[in-house]
């Protein structure tokens, strides 16, 4: 029986192909010169070059965090190339000008960049290695005053907005990986929803690492002005390579008065093979600021990929009556390690937060939930509800929960519920007795377990996520 | 329909079934009775293919096929159904989703077309009347938060939907009050046809007042020691299992 479950969790990674395209890749290594070079390649204004350099100097004084419950070989930051872009990347006036090889790559990943082919009404910004290659539906969005473009473009077209919000939620000195990102970030997505505008379509960024020996350091900045609403989705894949690759991203969200940002991630970076060879090291800082009253920020993540995941999408609940939410499904299999969770900082009055974390461990995977709920002195009448559930598949995996709670006033309340369960032989046998085979039984049980999170994803992505869960656990059940 | 010959089975290396012989034909209801630990439930589990039980000897032929050679889901496809003594909970999976998945797998295996949600729901609502189940059960997670009686009714509902050829009811009466017992038994009786067969595993005669067996077998220490008609159940009720043991001693 164990074997059937084991077998079920190991299916091949279907996005593991490589695109052969000529690239402009700078040699490995990191120094002030490299930071300047990246800035120069992107033709950046001086203030941004200086901002990067300052971050770099801070990074030099910092140490890689050792507290996560993760095991990985020491990263040699000098062996990584910090910039890689498809050659001849000029600014495109239309999608027709994009290298067909790139378009094909995205088609293969199931992302169509050709607008007329997209029926779903999702605008996509596609980031290939270090640069954004295409943004769809830009014109449609522009009519509403919505800015959705690559980060580089925003630096040139909307410097005042970038300058105002860059680093306003995640300062460059926030942590080791955020500082690194701030120094060398190559591209990413930028989005601004003006006052009172409800974004008419889902916005999405699709990140693809292709080049070998390079790191990917993208930066996403989303600002929802007063009364605005936007739902944003991020997807990511990478080729199967034997060496580990570094991914250190920063995402900053800002919600002004009465604004709402919903950010969903389906993370499917290459996880390495069953012995832990290769795979992405994913060190990501994601944070949202509910800057205005009655604002709301909601993170939903489905984490199935990466060899190492270090990620705590957080919300700073600054505005009174603001709401923060975190819904997460994290799956580890084979030798994957994940240390993920959230931080909810209650600062304003009557702020509310909800945390629902579902960890699934299979193979020799190690899954850790780490969360902080902090309720400040002035955050009176605030509430948090946390639910952490772990599911174990087989006997060699592990699940850990580290909840930290700090409450500094007496009118607030915090609730924490946790459970650990194991997919039992009896559950599977029950399904089989009703005619459902082991594979479908496990997928059904797991999807039932993760349902509360999936229902927060936009419809079509929920379907994708469910499939993904089936795939990443295939061959694992025991 | 099913022919069990000299069936021996172990669990954790301990022999529980020690040579069971039993033949059940279409249209028949057989009751398996016996004291605690006699192997009744083991027999039910072995027939449905629970992986914890190891068959060490003997054969089971179901509709001409070697049943022991089939995976549990293949047995289900072939028409073997087990109403569990302890139905399992599956959080987050709705009753209707679960049943539809099972039914469609069975239909697929028979080369029949799968039912879509509308067709299934219509059928399910009809079947729910058989066990007097409330519509809210459709969307509730499988057995989660169900009372003991609701779980057992849910088992019979599943039986009604999946329409097995051979239904094995494992202690379906345990934990039921008299009203629930009547509903469950009436459900089983409504599902009876000349084409299907039922094996009722029970400790008490009580259930057999409602589901009347054609044959009663008494299982002691992994063997069928006495078979007879429904009157045998009455005898057991009146005299307890001890009289069987005494008979066994005398004949030994």
Q: How many individual domains of chain A? A: 1
Number of strands of chain B: 12
Mean model confidence by pLDDT of chain A: 85
**Number of structurally distinct domains of chain B:** 1
Instruction: State which percent range the strand residues of chain A make up.
Output: 25-35%
Helices of chain B, by number, come to 8
Helix coverage percent of residues of chain A?
10-25%
Rg from alpha-carbon coordinates of chain B: 18 Å
Shape verdict of chain A: globular
Order of helices and strands of chain B: EEEHEEHEEHHEHEHEEEHH
| Quaternary structure state of the chains depicted | heterodimer
| Helix-strand category of chain B | alpha/beta
Helicity range of chain B: 25-40%
The CATH class name of chain B reads Alpha Beta
Number of strands of chain A: 23
**Helical segment count of chain A:** 11
Give structural attributes:
heterodimer, A: 478 residues, alpha/beta, eleven-stranded mixed sheet, ten-stranded mixed sheet, 11 helices, globular, B: alpha/beta, Rossmann fold, 12 strands
Describe the fold and architecture.
The complex is a heterodimer of chains A (478) and B (252). Chain A has helices spanning 2-8, 32-41, 46-61, 100-108, 138-142, 151-157, 159-165, 176-184, 425-433, 438-454, 459-473, and strands at 23-25, 84-86, 122-128, 131-135, 147-150, 189-193, 202-208, 219-224, 229-237, 244-247, 250-255, 260-267, 279-290, 296-303, 308-311, 314-317, 323-332, 337-346, 352-361, 366-375, 383-392, 398-407, 413-422. Chain A has 478 residues and is of the alpha/beta class. In chain A, helix 2 (32-41) runs antiparallel to helix 3 (46-61). Chain A is globular and about 65 Å long. Chain A starts with a helix and ends in a 5-residue tail after the last helix. In chain B, 37% of the residues lie in helices and 29% in strands. In chain B, strands 6-9-10-3-11-12 form a 6-stranded mixed sheet, sandwiched between helices. The chains are: A alpha/beta (478), B alpha/beta (252). Chain A binds chain B through residues 1, 424-427, 429-438, 440, 444-445, 447-452, and chain B through 48-52, 71-73, 75-77, 81-82, 84, 87-93, 97-99, 101-103, 105-106, 109, 141, 158, 162.
